[in-house]
Amino acid sequence: MDAAEFRRRGREMVDYVADYLENIEERPVSSDVEPGYLRSLIPTEAPLEPDNYDDIIKDVERVIMPGITHWNSPYFYAYFPASNSYPAMLADMLCGGLGCIGFTWAASPACTELETVMLDWLGKMLKLPDHFIAGTHGRGGGVIQGTASEATLMALLAARCKTLRRIRAANSELSEGEIRSKLVAYTSEQAHSSVERASLIGDVTMRMVPTDSTYAVRGSMLKKMLEEDKAAGLIPFYFCATLGTTASCAFDNITELGPICNKEHVWMHIDAAYAGSAFICPEFRPLLNGIEFADSFNFNPHKWLLVNFDCSTMWVKKREDIIGAFNHWQIPLGRRFRSLKMWFVFRSYGIQGLQAYIRKVGVQLNDPPCIFSLNGTVCNDLVGSNDLNQLLLKRITNSREIHLVPCQLSGVFVLRFAICARSTDSRHIQHAWRHITQLSCELLQENH
Ligand code: PLP
Description:
seven-stranded mixed beta sheet, PyrdxlP-dep_Trfase_small, binds pyridoxal-5'-phosphate, lyase
């Protein structure tokens, strides 16, 4: 493909993507293919001679689209938002064109510098304490990770390294292995599975802290476990709090937990993967109170801030804790120019535009409002038992009109309803509720 064809094909692709997104609600939101469907649709080996580009494009509809779950459909209410936006997509295209790999400042100064400034812009939107903002006299700063899972792991590894050094400095007779075997990390029993995975990768014990009736961890619960473990000669070193748990959008009480962690030299990391975007609105910002006690904080603009995947922003209180542990801010060496997406989106929407978007999805479309529109909408009452609710979900999924996923809360099978797509409006939600109600009624009639 030469530049002339690239120009032509590029315009065609932009048209294809715009048409796809503008007409997305006409497609069934989820796929009905069987596992392994794709292999039989394409050759078993790569072509020796070049394929024709027109054929490649035709195959997008033939091969790819049947197996796509349309995350940006207004009828997609599963998992969490993965909202994209046109400015973010254009910035990603530019990133691909520039193709620089910004692993050091010299490898592409703009890549490193824009990222630092964008993390400051976003940190200021969230009203993070000054020590997280690189452009102040603080010792902290921000970095873009690929995912929240990576941020949680980075924080755990940094905490492990910091604790090993601290304990060894005071007890030179202890070997690194001996200290390591005593380290204990903690998180909520409601935390995302990636938190426990971080402890497996980091090869440390992790204990799950029980939650209260709102599925939040309280200070007293963590304190009790720390006391038990210290009495048993173990070394608590890391606690991962969640602001906005995946299942029910619960908020751990970080104003209680933070001082306990600080006093015990326990690194407090905050995972606000999907709810974090909401903190740019002053009315939701109180949910972040207690952030001043955190050693690190992370959320995903790629979930709910119109910056398409991947863009997971992480701030640390002290840069040296991360850089001192790894000589680097992240696990991979290479880094894409992801801050371009943030820059384009922040400038195209402005803070007010982004706040308006959060409010639309989080508040206006919620009737009655459930916090951040995320989860929490329990259809359990509709049909009354776990078995029937499972059947209801199966029928909803098979209908392919709307897409939901379940979760378990206190042994109850819950249908989560998360408003995800940028294009979702009240008419889509009304349609979804009519659909759920109709299927529920049918199910109840059959079972009476
Ligand atoms: N933490 C929470 C609270 C989440 O809800 C999720 C995903 O839904 C994750 C972590 C994992 O996010 P990522 O895919 O960015 O690793």
